[in-house]
UniProtKB/TrEMBL annotation:
InterPro entries: Asparaginase_II
Pfam families: Asparaginase_II
Protein name from the UniProt record: Asparaginase
Length: 346
């Protein structure tokens, strides 16, 4: 049974407890910190978008289509569907000569409420460009269009069905995930992600290893190492694209730049690379609570980067809870098991 990572207080009493597991690993595979069952496979979902974007850069597709920092950052994003995100995703399709119909991620309304309300008030309709994964899928289409160019086939026909596990695009993406994690994903439990591509259940230890490798280049092929570095640089230059206004990932990477790459996944998963330390992080909150996963990730980042007094990180790891009148009614805090594990590795 996994230990409690985050406690929720109502007044001074514990109201809820969020159990989970945490793995911090270096690029050689040595375990820095392990808490809970780090060998149990979990679906990382969107937390691995950086890894899924490695073929986009390594193949030469990003260069062939002159992708900007913002466009590369969007390829690693779970964005809020704000106008800047939508315009950037549309710009990628324009470079490819494709229409929005080429995106196979599905239609999703913006997650940022003021944007959603504005669209409804104006009578606008959401499209796949608003989907939080539209940038990632734009990256897949770039890769597919380059493949079509090399094969001498028509791009729109070649990329059709790119979300299928046996499509050449998805085979490249899955191979990159296998190479980074050291796990043969073809033998891993498989599901279908919210954006329709395959998702694989992988151990937290292997996911942490992949992000240590992505942060250092060690253990990756030369092409994937260069790609990881380029993507991290792009995200540091355009962190808004990875999340959006007031989003955890965006705020942390705006503050820390290339010292930290972090990415949320659905159902309480977080992965991160800390290049200066040569470490990768992967955690999962068992009940899927993203708020608790953010608090745990903030506590881990504060401890590993020795920024325990950082107001931004403290604001998430010890998140104040207020009611609808603005009255302070409680807070989140790291549980003793998490605090001890992180203190032991200082």
């Amino acid at each position: 049974m996994n230990p409690v990572l985050i406690e929720v207080l109502r007044g001074s009493s514990v109201e809820s407890r969020h159990a989970g597991a945490l793995a911090v690993v270096d690029a050689s595979g040595a375990v820095h910190t392990a808490l809970g069952d780090v060998e149990r496979p979990v679906f990382p979902r969107s937390a691995v978008k950086l890894l899924q974007a490695l073929p986009l850069v390594a193949s030469g597709a990003a260069e062939a289509f002159a992708l900007t920092d913002a466009e590369l950052a969007l390829a690693c994003a779970s964005h809020s569907g704000e106008p800047e995100h939508v315009a950037t995703a549309a710009g990628v399709l324009a470079k490819l000569g494709l229409t929005v119909d080429a995106l196979e991620c599905g239609t999703q309304w913006p997650s940022r409420e003021p944007v959603l309300r504005g669209m409804v008030a104006r009578g606008e309709i959401a499209t796949p460009l608003h989907n939080n994964c539209s940038g990632k899928h734009g990256g897949f289409l770039c890769l597919g269009c380059l493949m079509a160019r090399h094969a001498g086939t028509e791009p729109a026909a070649f990329v059709h069905g790119y979300v299928a596990a046996d499509h050449p695009v998805m085979r490249e993406v899955s191979a990159a995930l296998s190479a980074a994690t050291g796990v043969d994903v073809e033998r891993a439990p498989r599901g279908t992600d919210g954006c329709s591509i395959p998702t694989f259940a992988l151990p937290l230890r292997s996911l942490a290893l992949a992000f240590a490798r992505a942060g250092t280049g060690q253990g990756l092929s030369e092409g994937h190492a260069r790609a990881a570095r380029r993507l991290r640089q792009a995200v540091a230059a355009a962190p808004f694209m990875v999340g959006g206004t007031d989003r955890f990932d965006t705020r942390l990477m705006q503050a820390l730049g290339e010292r930290l790459f972090c990415k949320v996944g659905a159902e309480g998963v977080y992965c991160a690379a800390l290049p200066e330390l040569g470490l990768g992080v992967a955690l999962k909150v068992d009940d899927g609570a993203v708020r608790a996963a953010e608090a745990a990730m903030a506590a881990v980042a504060a401890a590993l980067l020795q920024r325990e007094d950082d107001e931004l990180l403290q604001g998430y790891s010890h998140l104040p809870l207020r009611n609808w009148r603005g009255t302070l009614v409680g807070a989140l805090r790291p549980a003793e098991a998490l605090t001890r594990a992180l203190a032991a590795r200082r």
